[in-house]
Design brief:
This is Fatty acid desaturase. Pfam families: FA_desaturase. The chain contains 15 helices and two strands. The chain is an all-alpha fold and about 350 residues long. A two-stranded parallel sheet has the order 1-2. The longest helix is centred in the C-terminal third of the chain and has 35 residues.
């Protein structure tokens, strides 16, 4: 069979399993209600954890872990919203949800600009101009640099932007990408960082620099310390840092680590969905998976059936995994770390 025939079979069987699941549990058909309920619950729980930490009833580590998990759920919800799965016919509610999820996860890209990159990702996954995945280190050789900048969308992308734009230009010159699409990708990637993503990263840079300088000062009488003005700003930002930014830093590292290694890059056959992703369920990824709502278990399913909710994917994943494995989708291909995410041996 061709890869397209295999893809069609996988898609057909997954859709059938979804239909059977919804027939058994009719409540699952109310996806707007379910999505909005998840949205409200996550925000309320996150705010509650933040309050308990603020009044010294919850240690900082518990706040960071708890909110990282909740923000991981919100990421999945945003991903569904990007595909217009909730409130497609009520753009006010739809956009309010997108806005508040972005405010709860300000280290990430503006979701309206991300939509451009994400739709392009589905059409051209694994190519040189798959900006969304390349922006989170997909396709890079594993090194200390890749590890350090896995969660970083500002300095990390500043270091790779010239190479990325050079590759995009070459793809345009070779006729693999239209000039208009290339321009839209570049603008979305840059303007999507403004203002919250850049500001949030700068606050974290200052926060960790302050901790580092204070450590050197206390241990080794290092003379450099952050200016008092910066320290005052950081003190004012302390609730934002602990309730929002540090949990998101953990969540974003885990998500980017998982997604950049479940997607293949560079030698994926154009249009071959089977070669685009793998399923990652190996035990040692569980700590990472926990803070991106087990993204590695289900994201490859999404490449075959795009317009379905994240919770349906999770509930019905067993049947999806069965048919995907049968027709050649890889599971726990750890060689991807050695091959810089190439599908084939280099």
């Amino acid at each position: 069979m061709t890869h397209q025939q295999k893809t069609n079979i996988i898609k057909k069987e997954i859709l059938a399993s979804y239909a059977n699941l919804k027939a058994k549990h009719p409540v699952l058909k109310y996806q707007n209600f379910i999505g909005f309920t998840i949205f409200i619950i996550c925000l309320l729980l996150s705010g509650g954890l933040g309050y308990l930490w603020f009044v010294d009833l919850l240690p900082a580590w518990a706040l960071i872990l708890g909110n990282a998990f909740l923000f991981g759920v919100l990421h999945e919800l945003e991903h569904d919203l990007i595909h217009f799965i909730y409130f497609k016919n009520n753009r006010i509610v739809h956009n309010i949800m997108l806005l508040f999820i972005w405010l709860a996860r300000p280290l990430t890209l503006n979701p309206w600009f991300r939509r451009v990159l994400h739709y392009h990702h589905h059409k051209f996954s694994g190519t040189l101009h798959d900006v969304e995945e390349r922006g989170v280190t997909n396709g890079e050789k594993w090194s200390l640099k890749r590890l350090l900048f896995t969660p970083d969308l500002v300095i990390g992308n500043a270091l790779r932007v010239f190479g990325l734009f050079r590759d995009i230009k070459r793809e345009v010159d070779n006729g693999n990408l239209k000039f208009k699409a290339a321009k839209k990708l570049k603008l979305s990637g840059v303007f999507g960082l403004i203002p919250f993503t850049i500001l949030s990263h700068v606050i974290l840079y200052a926060f960790f620099t302050d901790i580092f300088f204070d450590l050197l000062h206390d241990k080794y009488q290092f003379s450099w310390v952050m200016p008092e003005l910066i320290k005052d700003i950081l003190a004012w930002c302390n609730p934002i840092i602990y309730i929002i930014l540090l949990p998101n830093l953990l969540r974003q590292f885990c998500l980017h680590f998982i997604t950049s290694n479940l997607h293949y890059f560079g030698d994926v056959e154009q249009g071959n969905v089977i070669e685009q992703t793998q399923i990652l369920t190996v035990w040692w990824t569980y700590p990472f998976q926990l803070f991106c709502f087990f993204f590695g278990w289900t994201h490859a399913i999404h490449h075959f059936v795009v317009n379905e909710t994240f919770y349906i994917r999770h509930i019905a994943r067993k049947k999806a995994h069965e048919v995907m494995r049968k027709h050649g989708v890889r599971f726990n291909d750890l060689g991807t770390f050695r091959r810089a995410n190439r599908y084939h041996e280099v």
